[in-house]
Amino acid sequence: MLIYLDGQFVTKEEARVSVFDHGFLYGDGIFEGIRAYNGRVFKLEEHIDRLFESAHIIAMEIGLSKEEMTEVVLETLRQNKLTDAYIRLVVSRGRGDLGLDPRKCPKASVICIAASIQLYPEELYQKGMPVKTVPTRRNVPEALNPRIKSLNYLNNIMAKMEATAAGVSEAVMLNHEGYVTEGTGDNIFIVKKGVLYTPPTYVGILEGITRNAVMDLAEKRGIRVVEKVFTRADLYIADECFLTGTAAEVIPVIEVDNRRIGAGEPGQITLELIKDFRALTNVDGPEIFGNEEWTNVQ
Ligand code: PMP
Known about the structure:
Helix content is 31%, strand content 26%. By secondary structure, the protein is α+β, with helices and mostly antiparallel strands. The protein has two domains: 2-115, 2-Layer Sandwich (D-amino Acid Aminotransferase, Chain A, domain 1), CATH 3.30.470.10; 122-281, Alpha-Beta Barrel (D-amino Acid Aminotransferase, Chain A, domain 2). The strands form two sheets. Strands 7, 8, 9, 10, 11, 12, 13, 14 and 15 form a nine-stranded mixed sheet that branches. Strands 2-1-6-5-3-4 form a six-stranded antiparallel sheet. The mean pLDDT is 96. Bound molecules: 4'-deoxy-4'-aminopyridoxal-5'-phosphate (PMP). 4'-deoxy-4'-aminopyridoxal-5'-phosphate is lined by residues 33, 156, 182, 185-187, 206, 208-211, 244-247. 4'-deoxy-4'-aminopyridoxal-5'-phosphate (PMP) binds next to helix 6 and strand 13.
């Protein structure tokens, strides 16, 4: 496995960061999770744009242009001869001293890892999965806006642990007012009377790229899509529910806090959107390899 680390490709063993890196010391950094399917990088432009937006919000200079960053992702896949992969792009504030002050970090550090990921077992995609709401709340936007895909995932990790302890694979996180926000690494949707609802970004969520893609696909099918705050009770009485994310893709939810959702099996609209999403992943995004290279990796 070859990993991109600050302008070079190095082996897994050689890929090391300093203990003085502020990403490590303070979680001062940002990241993206991206997927490649069938020789293309799905929604690459959207991921690069979001990475640069996260950097801009935390006033971090990445040190590469968007075009260069795009090439980093594509070249990492080429170096590893991958046509289908999960890509982790990380930009940390870089090496500094033990103080918080980012002025002590002269250069951001850029890392790109291409590997594979299986977030949930295949069975859950077929049958749907149970989830639970958990005590740990999503970050208050005024403190650390969840729009920033930052290296601070401690709330989400706590929530994940609470879900695991409660015997389910994923948590539903509420905000400080009790409104439903999202999962620990995925956005949430419900269907009620044929209308698709998802929480608006202001409740405190990451504006997921899969979320946006699914909203577009639903609209193309003529399904009404509404961004609206909703509570746990709204979740319990939904006809259908599913989660979306780069790693999770689109996964049906059939139980929330031990309440059955709809008929207790993946709903019709969920299944249609899964089908549309799978089709889109095969055709969207820039190609990794030219024709000749493509035959070599096949
Ligand atoms: N919410 C959170 C907290 C996430 O970390 C992610 C990405 N893993 C998502 C939602 C889904 O976003 P995307 O569809 O862009 O992967």
